[in-house]
Write a structure and sequence with these properties.
This protein is of the alpha/beta class and 430 residues long. A six-stranded parallel β-sheet has the order 3-2-1-4-5-6. The radius of gyration is 22 Å and the shape is globular.
């Protein structure tokens, strides 16, 4: 079953597994299978997210040129035949996203009975679809987004707030297309794959209230401008489940984290590894989860006999980082790099344990870095480069740490997004 231990090249294998997970979620592979035959009437394609331009490219590969507008992150655009691709800012929204969202809503409001709106939604849509609620400015939304990102709140809680400060999230995009039919194809980047949380659910009815949003701000001590407080005291803007405007909407997930983890697991088994999937919806503080995983890896290493097959621990989900200390890291550490750094610190050079932690969209936090790979020599290499691992962790400077010590994983835009990918490889006797 297993290959001899000396034939395992841990860094190569871990990077190959990550690449396989990303490839499994490529929109060009997953979108066409979920498309019906192209309707005879008017079809308008809209969408937003880091994968949305690639999704639009996949639609036109199957249907030919289409009318429409899709918003993606800067640098994530793709060549399309008829669908307009607009690039905007993520994770903090900008004027380009706001202007494109207004045009998208106008496009949908022009549809009628018998028409079809095809919505392409992926992670990142929360920041890229920007239509501030009445009384709010774009700057208000930017300040709230930045504060939420620094708070450590889970993504689903952040999105409750975002929905109630928007005229496009929480089912409002779909409502704008009524009475046309809408088919929404979604690439999930959220734990549990609930369509209501993917991109803040622009095509899904939402049962949360402004009181729920205020509770999130209080729980995570998020300071907001006065207009935001006023907006959350106004009437609810999200579209409730069961609203007649959503009766002709179908939401369909075309790629999800579990599929990518299983693709990596299959490849690892073919390389002679025993595989254990810890879960595809793990949430929490990056450093805390890393501590738990380090303890598990050390326990497994101690219990496995020399000559046993390598053990691979796979996990996905979405971790968070709470900014600490003086902010030396600039808030760009990213949850995957911080997880990798905290894991290396907790393992303290334990032999035979290697790991990778990357975001499948190629962007960890706000940095153009997917994440990092670590091994038994990571801390030694850092200290040789004059970098103190504990200090880097305290200041959320994980990207700076790996830039100096080595181990950064840089992919460029992957054009998909099924969230975090983590793999710990344990080589007995290593």
């Amino acid at each position: 079953m297993s290959q001899p231990d000396h034939k395992i090249d841990p860094p190569r294998l871990l990077r190959t597994l990550f690449d396989r997970a990303v490839a499994r979620a490529d929109p060009m592979e997953v979108v066409p299978a979920h498309l019906p035959p192209r309707p005879e009437g008017r079809v308008v394609v809209v969408g937003a997210g880091k994968a949305s331009a690639r999704m639009a490219e996949a639609v036109e590969s199957a249907w030919g040129p289409c009318e429409g507008l899709v918003i993606t992150r800067y640098g994530h655009g793709r060549p399309t035949q008829g669908i307009e691709i607009v690039e905007a800012s993520h994770p903090v929204p900008d004027a380009a996203g706001a202007a494109a969202t207004a045009r998208m809503l106008d496009l949908l409001r022009g549809l009628g009975e018998g028409d079809l709106a095809l919505a392409l939604i992926s992670g990142g849509a929360s920041a890229l679809l920007v239509a501030p609620a009445d009384g709010l400015t774009l700057e208000d939304k930017r300040r709230v987004n930045a504060a939420l990102l620094a708070s450590g709140a889970p993504i689903d809680r952040m999105n409750v707030v975002r929905k109630h400060l928007s005229r496009v999230k929480g089912g409002q995009l779909a409502a704008a297309a009524h009475p046309a039919r809408m088919l929404a194809l979604l690439i999930s980047d959220v734990p549990g794959d609930d369509p209501a949380f993917i991109g803040s659910g622009p095509t899904v009815g939402d049962g949360s209230t402004p009181e729920d949003a205020r509770a999130v701000l209080a729980r995570w001590s998020v300071a907001v401008p006065e207009p935001v407080t006023a907006a959350l005291g106004a009437a609810m803007g999200v579209v409730p489940p069961g609203d007649a405007r959503l009766a002709l909407v179908e939401n369909r997930i075309v790629a999800a984290p579990a599929q990518s983890l299983e693709a990596a697991a299959e490849l690892a088994r073919s390389e002679g590894c025993e595989v254990r999937i810890l879960g595809d919806r793990i949430e929490g503080e990056a450093r805390d989860v890393a501590g738990d995983h380090a303890a598990l890896a050390l326990r497994e290493q101690a219990e496995r006999a020399a000559g046993s097959p390598p053990l691979l621990l796979l996990s996905g989900g979405e971790l968070t980082v709470t900014q600490r200390g003086d902010g030396t890291g600039g808030g760009t550490g990213g949850p995957n790099a911080e997880y990798a750094l905290a894991l290396a610190v907790a393992l303290d050079g334990a032999p035979g344990i290697h790991a990778i932690a990357c975001d499948t969209d190629g962007v960890d936090g706000a940095a153009e870095i997917a994440g990092a790979v670590i091994g038994p020599d990571t801390l030694a290499r850092a200290r040789a480069a004059g970098v103190d691992p504990g200090r880097a962790l305290d200041s959320n400077d994980a990207h700076g740490f790996f830039a100096a010590a080595g181990g950064q994983v840089v992919t460029g835009p992957t054009l998909t997004n099924v969230n975090d990918f983590r793999a710990i490889l344990i080589v007995p006797g290593g």
